[in-house]
Amino acid sequence: MDTFLVPWLDHIRATGLIGAFATPFSNYTPPYLYLLALITPLGAVMTDLTLLKLLSVLGTIALSGAMWRLLTALDAPSPKRAAALALMLPSTLLNAPLLAQCDAMWAAACVMALAMAVEHRHASMLAWFGLAIAFKLQAAFFGPFVVALLLNRQVGFRLWLIAPATAFIALLPAWAAGWPIADLLTIYVRQTSHFNLLSLNAPNPWIIIQALPGIQDLPMDELGMAIAIAGSVVYIACLASRRVAPMRILPAALLAPLLVVSMLPRMHERYFFLADILAFVLAMTMRSRASWSIAILCQAGSTLAILGYVADTQALSMLGAVAMIVATYRVTKLVTRPVDSGSAETHATIGCGTATRSVPTSGKPLSVNA
Length: 370
What we know:
The protein has 370 residues and is an all-alpha fold. The protein is 64% helix and 1% strand.
């Protein structure tokens, strides 16, 4: 906060809401900075700390609204109540009110993209996903699911351009104000140079691997990137080539960020945030013992990692990694288990709620309208 956020606030106050964007002043992309500039005048009646946390809390409220939209699309019971409960999850309470992070903003856009996917509104899905990328590169953790779904449903490649176009449009106001476009397009590239640890308290296998003796002498970054790319390709290939039962769409979406963040090195303690949220949606939709265990494991993993970061001890993050590994295994089983042609799952609607529309069991890609 002292190194980044407060100096950005001071810059906006000194140069004005529009003038602030005439020169590069942040290693964040503009969408968060636009919102920061809009609420800066409230600094006259509150401290910088309160102002920054207020913006994060507003992002969490937006996330709750996106979850209500997704739960409604999934035909989940009591969607408003479930979305309101999301405000009290450990992940959301620790992320915004405690750490003043903005992960809820890009996660909200990903959740909206998933809601559009459930309703087969692919153009809207790609627009929301592009907005998520514009907020934070961490939205790319959701990318394998988006690509796999587009391939599975044989969506034309021209529509695929909507996502990068939306991300680029989000940069235009800053560019118009004077921020060089070359700098705007390379913000994410420069972000990767800030840290060089295999795991920054992230509850993934790398937090355990980096504690092994002599590991620093090995090319682990390159190995981790290769594993993540290979794993993502396998995920996309499997999901794109098989019939995905309607009840499997939400678990498949959850599996993407779980796998990607588990495989990538240099992850932070809060990077499973989207997985935490989707696991909670899964529990509130399926309401089974398996789904609740997955949600609890995800919350435990992220909570332990954040507490480990706050307490400056990696032992808690290692325990969190065990929880996340088990959660990933259980979601993988949920996605890959054979579908019984006579089960309720086969005949359920896309909404995972009441079984009101039969789904054909042919080998064709899933194309069920909400």
